[in-house]
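In the laboratory, one determines a bound structure by crystallizing the protein with its ligand and collecting diffraction data. In a computational setting the workflow is compressed into a single prediction: the sequence and the ligand go in, and a structural description comes out. We illustrate the idea with FE2/S2 (inorganic) cluster.
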Amino acid sequence: MNKFSRNVIPLNLSEIEHLPNGGRIEYEFFPTDLDVTAPLLHYICQERWKDIGIGHMVDGSVLELEFNAAPKIFKLYDGYLTIITEGWHLHLCLSPNLGGPDRKTSPEQSQARLVTRAALYRRLNPDGEPRSWGIQFWNGVGVKMMTFFLPNPFIGENDDLLSERKPNLEKLKLYEELRNTYVLGIQEIPYDRNPLNKRYISVCRSSRCLPSRDYQPIYDALQAAVTEAGIEDLEVCVSGCLEVCKMGPVVFYSDDATWYTRVTPEIAKQIVDDHVVGGVAIAKHIYP
Ligand code: FES
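The predicted complex, in structure-token form:
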């Protein structure tokens, strides 16, 4: 496994998209390895959530969502980053999506879903003046995915448009910081490890695997066992569907991608003691 590096190796790649109104978008690309995209997204969503927006921008439609607080959940499962806030959630495929235990994703589909191009952008008006700043992602078939909107010096505190002659240029600091770090590689990533590379054990709280509705005792048992064993680098959490959808409660251990079904509080403790600590999985409850 490659060691995490705080220095991004620049791609030195840029592109211009000409717009029908005579304006243009200037893109500066950066690598899409998980060790680059994970710290970037963690930083802007968890630490700079007040400053950014998330959405989708194509001809004829713009969607823009804002955070009211740091995300409740920021987690990678089967290649997808899931971000959950109070009011909305999103999924973005940052590493290969392999599929659940019953249905594997084909290599073609996995490649199509994956973020394969990423760039910081400036959108310029027909007079060549920059008017908006952000981050754009593309999937493996070249389609624009999510856009992250960065602070705009022409927009005031109450979302009012400031005078063209009086932009608040302080607001460009985040764009400059991200450009220095991810495009130019002259500033270090502000983490010493990939923030998404954390092992976790999760219990499904969706309702399709019916008994999982009673996920709380399983969660509590996992948490108690992890605390009792003194394990510090394992997060216990609840999640949405874990792609088994039967024989719940369903538990997933991320370290070696193991699914467990029919988990009771006793089995939950055994998973922690025997599998997480002892390295021996509980064969009787593994799925499939
Ligand atoms: S609903 Fe629980 S695994 Fe799908």
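Residues 204, 206, 208-209, 212, 241-245, 248, 250 surround FE2/S2 (inorganic) cluster (CB under 6 Å). Keep in mind that any predicted model is a hypothesis to be tested, not a measurement.
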